[in-house]
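Researcher: Here's a chain I'd like modeled. Treat it as a single chain, no partners, no ligands.
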Amino acid sequence: MEKWIIVLVLLSSACLQAQDVPTTTNTAQESSPAPANDNNVTAEPSQHEKAEQELKEQERQRILGIVPNFNTTNVQNAAPLSVGQKFRLSFHSAIDPFEFVAAALDAGYSQWQKDFPGYGLGAPGYAKRFGAAYADQFSGIFWGNAVYPSLLHEDPRYFRQGEGTVRHRGLHAIASTVWTKHDNGTWGPNYANVLGNLTAGGLSNIYYPATDRGVELTLERAATVTAEGVLGAIFVEFWPDISQKLFHHN
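Model: Modeled as a single isolated chain. Structure tokens:
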């Protein structure tokens, strides 16, 4: 079932501040070297500090000012996230108010289509569909973006290319569901995403009606979520370009 991903736009703006360079009029000072002062030496930020700075920027990313886009980075050499940062990013995404709105819309569409008839209709049926929709979302994010990436040392973020040919960028987006960056900087199979989708699909057998359980339906749900992930990655990759054409801004 389509999730509500086709509303994505990456909001990023850069604030530039001009700094005046002080000049001296004392020629004696210009000709003599300044005394060394260890207090003026700025230490390079650690990998964890760098990741924290980048993560804070990501956590402000919203599409159209509403839809969260926390899991995308435009920094190709972004610092690896710690286990705590991966869990924080996933929970920040999972409990965002828009996730509840998306679950409510999903449940409404599901009830309109009379999906999962075992839930019944009316308010009780809608409440069950809403709970199942949000549980699917939360479970997918928790396992695919936090637990497995931490265990397998994989980066759960989408690394947007932002430049290159349409074909190259499109293939990069499509491949992101099965190929990802690892914490050591190398790229390899995206086991976390695949296992996360399968785990979420398997756990859904706990709360879906008996007629909508089983291995076949679990694999079908996992495949659907994977396909939605591909569409979402493609949209995140190209939406800033489309947005620039539509709204005429950078």
